[in-house]
Design a protein that fits this description.
By secondary structure, the protein is of the alpha/beta class. It has 2 domains: about 150 residues, NAD(P)-binding Rossmann-like Domain (Rossmann fold, 3-Layer(aba) Sandwich), CATH 3.40.50; about 180 residues, Dihydrodipicolinate Reductase, domain 2 (2-Layer Sandwich), CATH 3.30.360. The protein contains 16 helices and 16 strands. Strands 7, 8, 9, 10, 11, 12, 13, 14 and 16 form a 9-stranded mixed β-sheet that branches. Strand 2, helix 2 and strand 3 form a beta-alpha-beta unit. Helix 1 crosses helix 14 and helix 3 crosses helix 5. The radius of gyration is 19 Å and the shape is globular. This is NAD(P)H-binding protein. Pfam families: Sacchrp_dh_NADP. It comes from Nocardia terrae. InterPro entries: NAD(P)-bd_dom_sf, Sacchrp_dh_NADP-bd.
Amino acid sequence: MRIAVHGASGFTGSLIVAELVRRDITPVLVGRDAARLRRVAHKSGLPDAEIRVAALDDIEALAAAFADCDAVINAAGPFTFWGEPVVRAAIAARRPYLDTTGEPAYLHKILTTYDQAAKDAGIAVLPAVQDDGVPGDLIAALAAARLDAPIAEIVVADLRRPGAASRGTARSMAAIAVLDQIEYRDGDWRPAADSASTLTEPGETEPVTVTPLALPGVYTVPRHVDSPVVRGVIRTEVGELFAGLSGEVAETIPEIPDPAVLAASRWFVLAEATGVDGRRARGWVTGFDPYGSTAVIAVEAARRLVTDGAPAGTLTPAQVFDPAGFLAALTDHGITWQVETLAAV
């Protein structure tokens, strides 16, 4: 199996390359700088890895770089600025595509704009394959499945505390910080109510204040769960940090986070479903080191796309993978999950 990694010289891309090598999957390193790509190959213990240089403005060269690979993982953000040429190149090469974006407007654009092109090419296009996009989508599907009555609302919450962030993440968050927050309501994506609320994290006694954020689940969950409302929220303190980001501030953040801080950074994604009868169910997925977890999730998703296949078109994780089966595969990597039924409201 050969997996092309576009943006392999970046922080997340280099972790994906290392994870592919660890799992005896052949990486093909694609980017704009051959010297940087070679350094990643050496660091990953595969000095003879194949290096392919292609610019974003040369779709033909990008497509040629992907043509003999089994799938493409794009890890080069901000995706809002740099993502679409890679999608177009993967479609031109007829290679299954996934990326690690967390940028909501870009995610929505890919899902809605490239569906027919992906179907015509006979490939799956799967954006937001990272530490909140996949867990949030899959655990929301499992929570909703616990209820017998029709769904009234689904809330997807990213409850991680402030922690390590790479320069690439900061750039992406700065790119979306100026956008209005969105929720899914009554068949369309609309501005979210700009108000704080509280939510209790499983295992904790005190509720935390959360504010709206258009997490990937706001765009992915409505594609497979029939719910009139899907909202995304994060801890208010984290939202305030995001709101303070600018392009200038992002450039002052180290490209690679402090390893000790990174290893201790815990991420926690929760989904709560409420039925029209007031019954509730919730599920959560949690782990440490969000970037290492993203690498594991992206490689597992790419492996399954190649070995198991997928329908053609733009898809969400729960439309491609068995939610419980995929999450179970992550437990060997320190990622845990649970689903439970709650008392009715």
